[in-house]
Amino acid sequence: MLGRLAQLFLPVTIVVFALLSILTIPEWNVSNALPIMGNGPVPSLKGAIVPFTWFSGYLLLGLYFPLLSNQRKAAFFVLTAWFGEMITLAASGLVSVFLFGEYAGTLNYPFIEVVRYIGLGEFFQHIDALLLAVWLPGTFIELAAYFYAAVTGMAEWIGLKDYRALAFPLGFLALVVSFWGLSGAADFAHYLATSHVWFDFSLVVFGFILFLTAWIRGKLGALKPNRVQEKDGM
Known about the structure:
The chain has about 230 residues and is mainly α. The chain is about 70% helix and about 0% strand.
């Protein structure tokens, strides 16, 4: 059901994003993006660290793979989504730079400011509500995917046959934790630049360790039958 909901909102999200980007074209100043890598590639690589950690959420898809009948097809769609998200992030960043120049780097959510910048006459304002209309369902789907992964992962970890027994306790815990907020915009900006980056980066490292462990175990498991056959032959 969650997958069907994502299929329903994905085309709408793409259309809204493309439409909002097109509406800003008359205000673009492409020279704001020049010179490209004027100070070398190092600043660009440093700026790519934070967006790179956002892709750590794809590691949770590993919990869904055992439930799929066609894993190769799923891998294709995952890579397609990864590439599409990369293009979307790059496009939204470029549009923000075209409009705000160096000031875009000081904004926590520059594309929201881009949408607020849009105005069609005096009768069509506050178009940012259109962005929120597709952002909120996407956030709900993402949180639901995280919650399902947490419930099923913990159930498998502690050996429960039915993961539904953990749905209510973990849901109540998530509700309680949701009331813990940051005191202000300054603290939130500091969190995004420090703790949030390290947390996402740790997920990437942890996922790589799990992949490496599974790969080594697979190689060792493939060697055992060969050794058994050699002993039987002797």
